[in-house]
Amino acid sequence: LEPESKEMNTIYVQGFSTSMPHDIQEQMIRTIPGLQNCKILKYAYAIEYDAIDPLQLWPSLETKVIKNLFTAGQINGTSGYEEAAAQGLIAGLNAAKKLRGENSLILKRDEAYIGVMIDDLVTKGTKEPYRMLTSRAEYRLLLRHDNADERLRKYGYDAHLVKPEVYQIYLDKMERIHNEIERLETIRFTPKHEINNILETLGSTRLSEGISAKSLLQRPEMDYSKIKPYIGETSLTLEEEKRVTILIKYKGYIDKALRQVDKQKKMEEKQIPVDINYDAVLNLSLEAKQKLSQIRPLTIAQASRISGINPADISVLLIYLKQHY
Ligand SMILES: Cc1cc2nc3c(=O)[nH]c(=O)nc-3n(C[C@H](O)[C@H](O)[C@H](O)COP(=O)(O)OP(=O)(O)OC[C@H]3O[C@@H](n4cnc5c(N)ncnc54)[C@H](O)[C@@H]3O)c2cc1C
C-alpha cells in the first residue's frame, strides 16, 4: 500500500491492476485484509494499444518485414518509460548507422539491461506487455549502475553521442581507479601494536603477519573510508573510492561472472547466415525449423535462447554450418 503524498490521505494499491467493472472492483478491494472499509477515489482502468510481434524485429530494431523501418517502445510490445526511451535510442542510432553504411550497435546481455531487453524481445517475443525487470538478466553482478560508464561510454563515443571532452574525463577517471588499485597492492601494513589497535577500534581482527592495503580492503567490515587516513594522499572522488572498493571486494565474484560470459561469448561469436534455409538442415526438429525460420537468430547463442530449441538442435545446426559455410 503506497501513500501517494505527505499532504493527502490517499493510498495507491500496488499490484492490484484490473479493468473490471466498478461494482466488481468495490467487492475485490474489500477482500484485502485491512481494506474492508476503504473508499475508492479512482477506479482502475485498462488501456489498449496495437503492437507488432517483436519476433519480427532484428536486434537492431529494424523490422524484418519492411526494410529500413525501425520501431521502438510500446509498439514493440513493451510498457514503460525507460523501456521506450532505451529502444528509441538504439533504433534511432541504428537507423542513422544504416544510412551511413555502418554495422548496427547490438548491446550484449552482459553489457547492458538494454541488451537483455532487446534480446528477450526479438528472441523470445512477448505475450504480455514486457517490462525490464532486473531478474531477467543473468549477469546482474556485471550490470551495476556504478560501472555503467565502463560498459557503455565507449559505444556512445564511437557513435558520436558522447563528446570527446566528456570521454576524456571518463578515461582519466578509469586511469585513476586502476592506478589506485595497483597502489593499494604495494602499500603494506605490518602487525605492529598501533596498527592492531586501530584495526580493533575499526571492528576488524588483528594482524598476525604483513598484509597489503588491498587485502585489508577485502575484509567484509572494511571500506575505503576506514583505511583512507593510513594510506597517504589520493585524489579520488567519493564515487571513484566506491568503485575501487567494489572492484577489490567483489573481485572473485566478478571474475567468476566474467568467466561465464567468456564461455557464452564463444557461442555468441558463431554467426548464422541470414539467408540460411532451415528446411534443408536434416535432423532438425520440426519445431526448431519453424522457430528458427521465423526468428532468424543471428548467432548460435541467440538460437539457443529460443524456447523450444534444445541442445540437440544446436548440435545439428553447428554441424550443418561447418559443412556448408
Ligand atoms: C495512464 C498510464 C500510466 C502509465 N504510468 C507509467 C509509469 O508510471 N511508469 C512507466 O514506466 N510507464 C508508465 N506507463 C507506460 C508508458 O507511458 C508507455 O509505455 C510509454 O510512454 C510508451 O512510449 P512510446 O514512445 O512507445 O509510445 P507513446 O508515448 O504512446 O508515443 C507514441 C507517440 O506517437 C504519436 N503517434 C501515434 N500515431 C501517430 C501518427 N500516425 N503520426 C504521428 N504520430 C503518431 C502519439 O501521439 C504519441 O505521441 C503508463 C501509461 C499510461 C497510459
How would you describe the overall organization of this protein?
The protein has 325 residues and is mainly α. The protein folds into 4 domains: 46 residues, no CATH class; 87 residues, no CATH class; 86 residues, Arc Repressor Mutant, subunit A, CATH 1.10.10.1800; 59 residues, GidA associated domain, C-terminal subdomain (DNA polymerase, domain 1, Orthogonal Bundle), CATH 1.10.150.570. Helix content is 47%, strand content 2%. The protein has 13 helices and 4 strands. The strands form 2 sheets. Strands 1-2 form a two-stranded antiparallel sheet. Strands 3-4 form a two-stranded antiparallel ribbon. Strand 1 and strand 2 form a beta hairpin. Helix 4 packs antiparallel against helix 5 and helix 5 crosses helix 9. The longest helix is centred in the middle third of the chain and has 23 residues. It is globular and about 75 Å long.
